[in-house]
Amino acid sequence: MSFLRVFFYFTVPVFLLSSCSTTNKIDALKPLPSDNSPMVYKSTTSFVSMPLEISLKEIEKQLNKKLTGLIYEDNDMKGDKQEMKIWKTADIKITEKNGKIQAVLPLKVWAKFKYGTNFMGLNDSREVNLNGTITLLSDAKMSNLKLTTSSKIDDYVWSESPTIVVAGKNVPITYVINPMLSLSKSKISKMIDDAIKELPDFKPVVLDVLQTMSAPFITSDLYQTWFRMEPIEVYVTDATLDKSKITMDLGLKCNMLTMVGQEPKNTFDRTAVVFKSVTKVPDKIMANVAAISTYESASRIITKNFRGQEFASGSRKIVVNEVNLWQKDGKIIIQLLMSGSLNGTIYLAGIPKYNAQTQEIYFENMDYVLSTKGMLTRTANWLLQGVILKKIEASCRYSIKSNLDDGKKSMLPYLNNYSPMKGVFVNGTMNDFEFEKVEVTNKAIIAFIKTTGTMKVKIDGMD
Questions:
Q1: Which domains, and CATH codes, for the chain?
Q2: Which of 74, 91, 176, 336 lies 20 to 30 angstroms, CA to CA, from 242?
Q3: How confident is the model at residue 399 (pLDDT cuts 50, 70, 90)?
Q4: Mean pLDDT of 323-344
Q5: 3-state SS string for the chain
């Protein structure tokens, strides 16, 4: 959706480390046990403009599937003294003419009509068979993804002039047949309008596209990062007929988020998506993405980042064996368990921030404290004030520039004639990602990122 399926290739969890500063001690108590309460954060909804284009060929295809064989029957000879049956002999062809839908219907007609007078039984009836085409012009309207028409017969063209045999001679009866059709043209036009009205509306198609776009998908195997879109409302304008297609504007109101860890559930509910008719929708994508990183997942991932790294200064060296993170009083506590020249734990704490110029995440107002095993803190001053800590601090910074660039590159295929289902095609453009802010909750760090772009959905060639 989707075009939307790749808004996040970049990996939020690694945002969690950054530069360190003062030697003020911090309260590094473990957090309270986690509960099952829902994660609460202020979400900014996204808006996706999706101009929808339905080709007349698609309408033609669906109408031909609907109308087959005998398409009209009038067996009542009372009143107009005629009976008529009409069969469709080939596919209906639909085009645009002067802002209307023109439908050319190849047909075979069987007609029976009475002529003469009832005086003394002086009347007779004749049957006639003929082939030709009927041309209809229709005013078309599509409201809330449902197509309706108001049709009128515009012309009749016969393969050969209809005749009957009277006294051994072929007598032309076009002058009889055409008035008969004229008497029935309102019925024939209604038959076409009813057939179009009975065509399935395009809501299921839009919902199928949204369902495909809403399925969670992994954006990074390394960091176990998933993207999910949650549709809320769909805004629909009335349609216009433009040459060979019907066009309208759709607007999707949704939430976008990334989650770290196990694959999230697909929460898409077709019955919960609300469709609303509007006169106009904005013509751009305005996406605000909430990237969620739980502390448990972030701890596991950052531990992997430190795995195999050795930090040395002179003869002294340490290895970070494990990283744990949690939140306390609006700050992130980072616990680093070390071994080597120093067996102990260092706690870092700070507020996550973003540097727009360097495109890096860093921690502001950073504090740290050292807790050692079997060693006085003063003997570890070489770590607190020395080169090794500076190296650890340097490795804590993380630039997201390449991730944002990769995110854009990975999204482009979904905007280049992407087909989430047969006969549905998505095209569009996307601007660069912009980092907006970072928020800390009791369960996770949430990074908010936004972008803009355009998108168009075309329906042509469905089953």
A1: 3-54+204-402 (no CATH), 57-197 (3.15.10)
A2: 91
A3: low
A4: 83
A5: CCHHHHCCCCCHHHHHCCCCCCCCCCCCCCCCCCCCCCCCCCCCCEEEEEEEEEEHHHHHHHHHHHCCCEEEEECCCCCCCEEEEEEECCCCEEEEECCEEEEEEEEEEEEEEEEECCHHHCEEEEEEEEEEEEEEEEEEEEECCEEEEEEEEEEEEECCCCEEEECCEEEECHHHHHHHHHHHHHHHHHHHHHHHHCCCCCHHHHHHHHHHHHCCEEEECCCCEEEEEEEEEEEECCCEEECCEEEEEEEEEEEEEEEECCCCCCCCCHHHCEEEECCCCCCCEEEEEEEEEEHHHHHHHHHHHHCCCEEEECCEEEEEEEEEEEEECCEEEEEEEEEECCCEEEEEEEEEEEECCCCEEEEEEEEEEEEECCCCHHHHHHHHHCHHHHHHHHHCCEECHHHHHHHHHHHHHHHCCEEEECCEEEEEEECCCEEEEEEECCCEEEEEEEEEEEEEEEECCCC
